[in-house]
Amino acid sequence: MLMTSDWVFILDEVDELSAMILSSEQAQKLRQAYQAVYEDIELSARIKAFQRIKDQYEDVQRFGKYHPDYNIIMKQIRTEKRQLDLNAQVATLKLAENDYQDLLDEISLIIGHSVSEAVKIPVSNPFFASAGSACGTGCGTGGGCSCSA
After folding, report:
1. Is the pLDDT of residue 75 over 90?
2. What own/partner pairs with CB < 8 Å and gap ≥ 24 does 20-24 have?
3. Model-level pTM greater than 0.85?
4. Which one, of 3, 113, 43, lies nearest residue 121 by Cα?
5. Distance between CA 95 and CA 26 in Å, rounded?
6. Cβ-Cβ contacts under 8 Å for 91 (sequence gap 6 or more)
7. Three-state SS across 103-145?
8. Residue 123 near residue 105 (C-beta atoms within 8 A)
9. pLDDT (tens digit, 9 = 90+) per residue, 98-143?
């Protein structure tokens, strides 16, 4: 690849965009929420305990209902996940993660559509997936929707 002034300009713009993303309000909220969760010693211990249960759950999934501890592990993982989900700090972290992902999705769409409207951009939020399509389905129907995409 030959380095031209166009490539240097693009790389400079990428660095600037990265700095803007990292200094965004969403990124700051994500860092604060992450810090709040993992600096809480009790909550951090509960998360580690949940991870151990999750490892057991993955082992149980290999054998399904034939595993001897299937019912115990399935009940235990649901209970622990529910307790973590109800924690205010964990909920704040999840919301901050979603907000940050939405920001990244918006940026991806802007960049992708600046190249071409036909570029398909994978996004996590269904709102963004349908925003650019005429049929509202993201044109994943293989032409069955009769839209112009």
Report:
1. yes
2. 21/103, 21/104, 21/107, 24/103
3. no
4. 113
5. 10
6. 85
7. HHHHHHHHHHHHHCCCCCCCCCCHHHHHHCCCCCCCCCCCCCC
8. yes
9. 999 999 999 999 999 888 888 888 888 776 666 555 455 455 555 5
Mean pLDDT along residues 65-78: 92
Give the Cα separation of 32 and 30 in Å (integer): 5
The tokens for 94 are 């999840």
Amino acid at position 84, single letter: L
User: What is d(CA 9, CA 149) in angstroms, rounded to the nearest whole number?
Assistant: 32
User: Which among 50, 72, 71, 70 is positioned nearest to 61, based on CA atoms?
Assistant: 70
Q: What Rg do the C-alpha atoms of the chain give, in angstroms?
A: 22
Residue 93 has a CB neighbour count (10 Å cut-off) of 20
Coil, strand or helix at 69: coil
